[in-house]
Structures are given as C-alpha cells and as structure tokens.
Amino acid sequence: MTPTTQQTRPVCLSDLTQDRLAEYIASLGQPAFRAKQIYKWLHQKLVTDFSAMTDQPKALIEQLQQTCTIASPSIRRKQCSKDGTVKYLLQLADGNCIETVLMRYHYGNSVCVSTQVGCAMGCRFCASTQAGRVRDLTAGEIASEIYTVQRDTGERVSHIVLMGIGEPLHNFNNVMDFLEIISSPGGLNIGMRNISLSTCGLVPKIDELAKRKLQLTLSISLHAPNNKMRSSMMPVNDAYPLEQLIPACRRYQQATGRRISFEYSMVRGVNDSPETARELAHLIRGMGAHVNLIPINPVDGSPYSATDDRNIRRFRDLLEQLGVNATVRRRLGADISAACGQLRREDASQAAKSAMERNQTT
Ligand code: SAH
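# S-adenosyl-L-homocysteine complex -> structure
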C-alpha cells in the first residue's frame, strides 16, 4: 500500500451557526470581530467566494481558501411559470441535485426548500421518495437554496417553507442549525413566524421540536383520518399511528402556544368522501387547527389521481359546517407543475439514459 499524506477535509463555513463560527475563527488565532464580519459576508451579503470579503486580511483570505469552503450550488435547470413561480434544480458540490421553488405572494417572496437528497419516508403519492434517501443536506446547503434564489432574482425572500424534497425532522440537527442561521440578526433575519415546517409525522421528533418552543408553523401531512387509509398512503403511519400522532400534535400546541396546520392532499376515491370528511372533523375537532386541502399531483408510477375541484370544495364546506377551519390551497406554478421531486427524477433518468447511450456508442 502506498502511504497517503493525511488530508483533512475542508470545513464548510456555511454550515456553522454564529457561535460555532466564532469558535472556529478563534481557533485560527483571529479576533472575535472577524467571525462577526465573516458571518455577515456569508449569510447577509451572500458571497460565494472568500476573495469577496474585502475587509479581511489577505493572509486570512488565503488561509480560508485553502482550508474552508462556502456552500454555493449551481443552477442546473430553471422553470418559470406565468404566475411568477420559479422552480430550480440545484446541483450541490458533490453532484447531487435538489429542488427549490420560489413562490411570489402579495405578502412577499416565499421559498420552498429541500432538506434531504431524496427521502426515506416512502409516501406512495410522492415523487421525492421513489428512489429513497441519498443523504441529508447540511445547514449551509439548505440556507444556500434561499441565497441562490435571492441572488438569482435580486429580490428579498421573506418567507420559508420546509416542504421540498426530504423529511425535515429526519434531518433534525441540521434543520435546527439552518433555522438558527436563517433567523439570526447577523444573517437574513427571517422571523420564525414566517417559517413553516412540514412533517409526515415523526412523533418523537415532534416532541423534541416542541421543547425548542420555536414560533414557526408546524404542518402535519395528515392526508387521512384513520389508520387503515393513512397506512395505505404513508408507511410512516405504521410506526406512528394516529393515536400517537394526534396527541403529539396536541402536546406541541400546548408547549408552543402555536396552532398546527394539517395538509390534506385529496385523492379521488381514496380520501375524499363525505364520510371521510366527517371522520376527519371528528379526529381533529377542538384543536383549532387549520386544514389545507390540495388536489394530489399525480406522479408517474402512482395509482392515485386528483379529486376534482367541485368535490374538493364540497369536502371543505362539510368540514367548515362541522367546525373545522379549511381552505383549498391555491395552486401556484400549475403550468410547470411537476410535483415536487419530479424535476430531480426527470433529470436523473435523463442522465441515466444519456449514460446508457454513451455506453452503447463506445
Ligand atoms: N416530508 C415532509 C415535507 C415534504 S412534502 C412532509 O411529509 O410533510 C410537502 C407536502 O407535499 C407534504 O404534505 C406531502 O405529503 C405533500 N405531497 C407530496 N407529494 C405530493 C403530491 N404528489 N401531491 C400532493 N401533495 C404531495
């Protein structure tokens, strides 16, 4: 065996919360104000190159260039909808791709971020999980999704939803670091009340999140009011059935003082009958929770099709009559619609196809 010189992996500075960056910069023998300046360059001025940090000494810049990195994905594909929604396929440093979506609302720009490459949860209607989970995103990679959108559009992002590829609570620590970075006054300073985190229902992690008492909005992907129906759509329900999930939601509301919202994707002939609406109302009555109804976005290889608009409205009216707040979610980007995860899959299968073609010709 040939002896190798020990290579230390570069430190990605984008991943470090303000405290950890301070420790790291101090370990280089630098004064504390340098860490503050560098944090601002990374998370407020959104530079992607150490050489742009013009108030830093040249020697430090050179040292950082040799030993550190900054998360800065490249835009591999971009689809723009007529309504202003933009869907990005971003390529990470290791070649993996994720999706990020910019949505423009009257109250500001909202970005939907991915938290993992792929997903391990296996929901039967979801494109993101079909090839499983490849890896977690780091805190800096998640933040860089927002930074990339902001740099690309020149417009400020004011709201964030953690509803892209991946299960945020399955990447708990990195997501917590990301939330700390993105809401820090030295960074983009996005308020927790402008952030929504969506989960398929990992009960122990919901309890762990409750302990942090963050003022974000927790969304639960419910999609069905009984275990038989929910397990047929979401394998996670076998691990954490409704008799565990709903009490966890109540505990969360108690601990944080924040109302939960439930996501309910409507699938024709599966979860959209009046009987199911009554069962749903019964399940969550008294929680003051909000239900978001969305027609399912059919993905390749899935047996599900969407409930039509009239039946969705009927379902909503019935919930309202039974005392449950419900809205039908406006569909943005319908013309580029690819359900989340489809752009990445499409790209991967194209890459596989061209690799095969290359192999055939060589
Ligand atoms: N893993 C998290 C967040 C990512 S998915 C979660 O499960 O909540 C974001 C939302 O989109 C979830 O409510 C999810 O159930 C829903 N979703 C996934 N695929 C969908 C599809 N094809 N049509 C409609 N909603 C879908």
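# post-check
The pocket of S-adenosyl-L-homocysteine is lined by residues 121, 123, 125-126, 163, 167, 198-200, 221, 263, 265, 294, 296-297, 299, 339 (CB under 6 Å).
Residues 115 and 320 are 33 Å apart (CA to CA).
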